[in-house]
Amino acid sequence: MTTHQIMAWFIKFPAQTAILFALVWIMIKLQKLDQNSEFHFLKLLGVVTLASILDTLPYAGVELSGVALWMGIKYVTRSPVVDALFTAFISSALMFAVNMFILGSLMGDLRSSARHTEDSGPLERAPRVQTVKTEPEPGVRTNPPAAAVATNPAAQLSVKPAPANAGQFTIKGITRNGVKSVIIIKNGTKSYSLFLGDTCNLQTATGVSSVKFENLDEDWVTLNVDGNPVKLPAR
After folding, report:
1. Which label site among 50, 65, 84, 192 has the fewest CB atoms less than 10 Å from its CB?
2. For the purposes of burial, counting CB atoms within 10 Å of the CB of 97, is it exposed (0-12), middle (13-18) or buried (19 or more)?
3. Whole domain around residue 62: which residue ranges?
């Protein structure tokens, strides 16, 4: 065992023993199994310590720990077999629940499927593009509204080709969370995080491109690159 493993064991073992002892003590008090004159605090502590030591064994440690805890409680409390077995079983089950709670707290949220691979380069948050609304000056002709363009057949036939730099973008990770979905988009040697609906300016080989994360479905990620829709595989 390394030094770190030994230090971790000396930290983990007293904590586990203390928690198990508290659970066993509570169960004994609730069932009033400490009524005989031979019951002693230190004896119960020794039983719990022995059970914790056996639990660390690599093979059949859990089974041996449970048997030792059951027999030790029966010996210390002089209670019937059923009561001692019930106390040992419930205490072990609560100890398992406590360990799962601690493990879950240390691991955190694992629902995110976005993974930062080794070859994806540094991950940066893509800067948002702020849209500023301006009022037209008197006498200046403005562009027609979207409704007028939609009713114009000539406008419908005018389709811009996909930008040449669209192939420079690849999807490295996806987190599906409804309107808060986020993707990791790679451009060259850099990776950026982009939330659904966000627009950012990314530097490409041909210049700066405006990229917007428009939609996410089961199979495709839809981007808007310089005003042109681009679909990239989501898997």
Report:
1. 50
2. exposed
3. 3-107
CATH number at residue 183: 2.30.30
Q: Is residue 168 part of a domain?
A: yes
Residue at 61 is within a domain = yes
CA 50 from centroid of its chain's CA atoms = 36
Gap between the Cα atoms of 88 and 42, Å rounded: 17
Distances (CA, A) of 155 to 146, 159, 162, 224, 227: 10, 8, 17, 19, 15
Domain boundary among 107, 142, 172: 107
Q: Are residues 28 and 117 in the same domain?
A: no
- 171 in Cβ contact with 183 (< 8 Å): yes
How many domains does the chain divide into? 2
DSSP state of 168: G
Q: Over 50: is that where the pLDDT of 2 sits?
A: yes
In a domain, 155, yes or no: no
Q: Is the dihedral of CA 8, 98, 35, 33 positive or negative?
A: negative
43-74 residues labelled b (16+ CB within 10 A) or e (exposed): ebbebbbbbbebbeeeeeeeebbbebbbbbbb
Give the SS3 label for residue 233. Answer: strand
pLDDT digits (tens, 9 = 90+) for 4-54: 777 777 777 888 888 888 988 898 889 888 777 777 778 888 888 888 888
- Are 80 and 186 within one domain? no
